[in-house]
From TrEMBL:
One of its GO terms (molecular function) is xylosyl alpha-1,3-xylosyltransferase activity. One of its GO terms (cellular component) is endoplasmic reticulum membrane. It comes from Pampusana beccarii. One of its GO terms (biological process) is protein O-linked glycosylation via N-acetyl-galactosamine. Transmembrane segments: none annotated. InterPro entries: Glyco_trans_8, Nucleotide-diphossugar_trans, XXLT1. SUPFAM superfamilies: Nucleotide-diphospho-sugar transferases (SSF53448). This is XXLT1 xylosyltransferase.
């Protein structure tokens, strides 16, 4: 077991992610402490080179299968993919991309699966650090000018940290992501159902198959066995 000091990590992270924090943080401006919410985005830059793969997970999860099975998903990454991540299961990005959607009525951005692009949820992340290090495209997308360009194109202002960055990049470059089945990150939060999206909510929220990991996001109780 290796314990990493949060302050040391934040010190390394801050210069890499400072530019994106103003676009994807809840607060106004850029807070040094917020950098930790972007850890996954630049993990390949701050972890020792000998670490080639990492699974990063939220704390509000309940495992129904052996986590080792999740590691096998790394073997399913298509060429060019650097991150494994499941889709967001609420219409949060239908909401966030409202202006882009209005200007581009035929877009798949923010639309529900299976044909739409609902965005990602970062509760369960497979980070192929070696692929992230070697991907010229991914590292270009971390540059402040590229972040600015994409946020302007999509009129994007988020508050969910790394999840917002991956979602926005995924709209532009889906080839960087291996989409995990919803059963690996079965989100339970239904906040958006009661906040203007009850008519389309179930199109995002449905998940067929035996759940492997429950995600009790927004403090939602996880079912007992």
């Amino acid at each position: 077991v290796i314990v990493h000091d949060v302050n040391e990590l934040t010190e390394k992270l801050f210069p890499i992610v400072e530019a994106m924090q103003k676009h994807f943080s809840a607060g106004s401006g850029t807070y040094y402490s917020d950098s930790i919410f972007f850890l996954s985005v630049a993990m390949h830059r701050i972890m020792p080179k000998e670490i080639t793969q990492i699974i990063q997970v939220d704390l509000d999860l309940k495992y129904k299968t052996n986590i080792r099975d999740l590691f096998e998903e790394f073997d399913n990454f298509p060429e060019g993919a650097v991150i494994g991540i499941a889709r967001e299961m609420q219409p949060v990005y239908r909401h966030t991309f409202w202006q882009y959607r209005r200007e581009n009525p035929q877009t798949k951005v923010g639309e529900p699966p299976p044909d739409g692009l609902p965005g990602f949820n970062s509760g369960v992340l497979l980070l192929n650090l070696e692929a992230m290090r070697q991907s010229k495209l991914y590292n270009q997308l971390l540059e402040p000018a590229m972040v600015q360009k994409l946020t302007e194109k999509y009129h994007f202002k988020g508050h969910l940290g790394d999840q917002d960055f991956f979602t926005m990049v995924g709209m532009e470059h889906p080839e960087l992501f291996h989409v995990l089945d919803c059963t690996w990150n079965r989100q339970l939060c239904t906040w958006w159902k009661d906040h203007g999206y009850s008519d389309v909510f179930d199109q995002y929220f449905q998940c067929e198959g035996e759940v492997k990991i429950y995600h009790g996001n927004c403090n939602t109780p996880i079912p007992e066995d």
